[in-house]
């Protein structure tokens, strides 16, 4: 089986049970007097220079084979019908093998006016990024940084020098928004600082807690297993805490293990401007007919509005002034990293 199909099938397999999450270590304070009406809640946000009608999107996943083409088609229809930004999977294969380009182009064909991001690894050049964007007439590109995945991947890359330089050239020369993302191992303060220093303004922390690429790649190994990396990485919540000093002047995106609308609202409240989901959208289009999938996504919008009403937040910026209480290991992490937990717990004016 080719690698793209294997990733897709393993991602679906490894998601059978709802897991415990660091999101369970964040509490809101119950707001007895909401004093706002649900129809006054505004879900609008803006990332990478694009206005979004709601604060979540489809993260980069797939393409490169017949099976993944079918998934890209479904995801693109869902994106079109729900007005959702969508990222495609790495187009590296489309640069090497023209015959695979259709599996990506299908997204643009189904959603000619939607916001669609291309995707490549940080080992790629500015020329590669330009070509990848041309193939799908992209509105921007996601560049993934995935050292841990490459390390565990049997046929993975072993040279990691020069990534920041590649990213810097792409940011300076592409002429389209560039979003840097992890793939489920999270980001630290210093990673975000390094990206900011080279002009990156949109960063998806993509933390641990959802699709687990250490596990996926490890299961593709026949020997020299990397079981000890299966729990490696920083959770999405921890990564958002790490990003605190940047949330005001950077488009921080939360992703990695987003299970439900409450996880979305908690991420937004920690400063994310949008919340991306990969595994969850993959399962949605795998399990439901299109009409039901569309209804489900529209229901998420309604649920987010409900939670914001409950918290008395009319928009995302007000949500970011809601008090949040960090408990257990998340609190310990914040304290050790000099992140002011008391300030987060007492933000409301
Ligand atoms: C991914 N992801 C991914 N990311 C990326 O930047 N380029 C890629 O090609 C892929 N490929 C891919 C395939 C499949 C099948 C899945 C499920 C995911 C990673 C994805 O964008 C995201 O960062 C992680 O999956 C964590 O989010 P979830 O799945 O926990 O919501």
UniProtKB/TrEMBL annotation:
GO annotation (BP), single: isoprenoid biosynthetic process
Primary site of residence: cytoplasm
Alphabetized UniProt keyword annotations: Cytoplasm, Flavoprotein, FMN, Isomerase, Isoprene biosynthesis, Magnesium, Metal-binding, NADP
Binding positions for Mg(2+) per the UniProt entry: 150
Highest taxon listed in the record's lineage: Bacteria
Binding residue positions for FMN: 60-62, 90, 119, 181, 206, 211, 257-259, 278-279
Domain annotation FMN-dependent dehydrogenase: ranges: 165-322
Subcellular location: Cytoplasm
Catalytic activity annotation: isopentenyl diphosphate = dimethylallyl diphosphate
GO cellular component: cytoplasm
PANTHER family: ISOPENTENYL-DIPHOSPHATE DELTA-ISOMERASE
Function, as annotated: Involved in the biosynthesis of isoprenoids. Catalyzes the 1,3-allylic rearrangement of the homoallylic substrate isopentenyl (IPP) to its allylic isomer, dimethylallyl diphosphate (DMAPP).
Family: Belongs to the IPP isomerase type 2 family.
NCBIfam families linked to this entry: IPP_isom_2
Official protein name in the record: Isopentenyl-diphosphate delta-isomerase
Gene it is expressed from: fni
